[in-house]
Amino acid sequence: MSIPVITRAERVTSARIETRVLFAGPEDGVPVVFVHGNLSAATWWEETMLRLPEGFRAIAPDLRSYGEADPAAKVDATRGLRDLSDDLAALLEALDIPAAHFVGHSLGGAVLWQVLADHASRVLSLTQVCPGAPQGFGAVGPDGGPAYPDNAGAGGGAVNPDLIALMKAGDRGAETPNHMVNVLNTFVWKPPFVPERMEAFLSAALAQHLGQADYPGDAVPSENWPGVAPGKMGPINAMAPIYQDDPLAFTRSGAAAAILWLRGAEDQVVADGSLFDMGTLGSLGAVPGWPGADVMPPQPMITQTEAALAAYEAQGGTVERVVLDACGHSPYLERPEAFDEAFHGFLARQG
């Protein structure tokens, strides 16, 4: 089933992957590349793309393992997020674009930390919308790295199996809290907000590629709590802290791109105490056997990102910070006027 679109969709083949790419705006406009998050696809950005100021060209690819990307293209999690980062650089090469403004949401933002580290010359500016922390996602210890040497508690093994079963069935219902529509309406945006194009966004979420090489990815048994550790395939394993070999590389890359960090004040996904982090769930008693805060505290994701951006500023980078009240994990959907005011103003200041 194809995902409904309101922009222009094309198949683009780069040196690395063939995927669906959405476009809006003039072909000679200043390029802005939008990078979607987990459980979504490029479709989620369409309204934001169409609202860009005159003179900009919006470009939004489906990442590998998502949407209508080539299903044969898999994510090697042992490279961290480099497969996805390198795909974006290859897309610009295929489109004959030397550099672009980049906008990332959630997992897409985590990918952009890697883009800024490895492909800094491609980045005109970086807008990070509720981005994953540079250190990765889930099951960290007091020092911010993996709580255990095998990073037990992070990666694909931490994904709710009931959600996966419902996704495999393509179930669009709302009978249980684990149905996709309820996950989105509870966590991804702040209730009671529901997007006008909910059915299109739901289709994009259910188009996530499923399996041990995709979502949730593979997992390995562990002697450490909660009994499972990240495997080597798929985007969720790629976000595991164990595979982020140099999280702060972008602060030392010589990158000069200005960064806008924009987030919702009531984000439950990327937070100091995310409800998708095993350390948080254990501390709340939702998963029995938690080893305690001295082993696996709730991950301080916002604190980690702030420290990384402070390091970026210390080496000469520019960072702007915007927090939107009464807003969850998707500010560009929930509060479009406030989002555009901050985002468009930031773009204008880049010249």
- Helix/strand/pairing class, anyone? alpha/beta
Choose one word for the global shape: globular
Q: Determine the N-to-C terminus distance.
A: 41 Å
Please state roughly what percent of the residues sit in beta strands, choosing from under 5%, 5-15%, 15-25%, 25-35%, 35-45% or over 45%: 15-25%
Fourth-level CATH superfamily? Alpha/Beta hydrolase fold, catalytic domain
Task: Name the features.
12 strands; 351 residues; two-stranded parallel sheet; Rossmann fold; 8-stranded mixed sheet; alpha/beta; 11 helices
Would you write up a description of this structure?
- The protein is an alpha/beta fold and 351 residues long.
- It has one domain (8-349): 3-Layer(aba) Sandwich (Rossmann fold).
- Helix content is 28%, strand content 17%.
- The protein has helices at residues 46-50, 82-94, 107-118, 161-168, 180-188, 198-206, 235-238, 278-283, 301-314, 331-334, 336-349; strands spanning 8-13, 18-24, 30-35, 56-61, 100-105, 123-129, 210-211, 215-216, 219-221, 228-230, 258-264, 319-324.
- Strands 1-2-4-3-5-6-11-12 form an eight-stranded mixed beta sheet, with helices on both faces.
- Helix 1 (46-50) links the parallel strand 3 and strand 4 (56-61).
- Helix 2 crosses helix 3.
- It starts with 7 loop residues before the first strand and ends with a helix.
- The model has no long low-confidence stretch (mean pLDDT 97).
